[in-house]
């Protein structure tokens, strides 16, 4: 399993956490949001999912992902 940290802007509440973690889970990865740091720690199988796919599902939920 690969682990990475994604910087995300616009997260402010538990609803944001649920949206992002749910979207990441729906594509077969694990995500843990840290609101204070503005990050999402992700774990995923690189053979099935790439980091850019995780970043894209976060964007589709309306958040800005920092490169």
Textual characterization of the structure:
The protein is α+β, with helices and mostly antiparallel strands. It has one domain: Alpha-Beta Plaits. It has two helices and four strands. The chain has helices spanning 14-26, 51-60, and strands at 2-9, 30-34, 39-44, 64-65. GO terms for molecular function: metal ion binding. This is Heavy-metal-associated domain-containing protein. InterPro entries: HMA_dom (IPR006121), HMA_dom_sf (IPR036163).
Summarize the structure.
This is Heavy-metal-associated domain-containing protein. The chain has 67 residues and is of the alpha+beta class.
Query: How many structural domains does the protein architecture include?
Result: 1
Describe the largest sheet. 4 strands, antiparallel
* CATH class identity: Alpha Beta
Summarize model confidence as the mean pLDDT. Answer: 96
Query: Which strand order do you get reading across the main beta sheet?
Result: 2-3-1-4
CATH architecture: 2-Layer Sandwich
Structural class: alpha+beta
Number of helices: 2
Give descriptors for this structure.
globular; 67 residues; 2 helices; alpha+beta
What is the element layout, followed by pairings?
Elements: E1 2-9, H1 14-26, E2 30-34, E3 39-44, H2 51-60, E4 64-65
Antiparallel strand pairs: 1-3, 1-4, 2-3
């Amino acid at each position: 399993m690969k682990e990475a940290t994604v910087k995300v802007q616009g997260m402010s509440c538990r609803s944001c956490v649920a949206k992002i973690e749910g979207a990441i889970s729906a594509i077969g990865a694990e995500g843990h949001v840290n609101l204070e740091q503005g990050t999402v720690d992700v774990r995923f199988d690189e053979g099935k999912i790439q980091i850019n796919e995780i970043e894209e599902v976060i964007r589709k939920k309306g958040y800005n992902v920092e490169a």
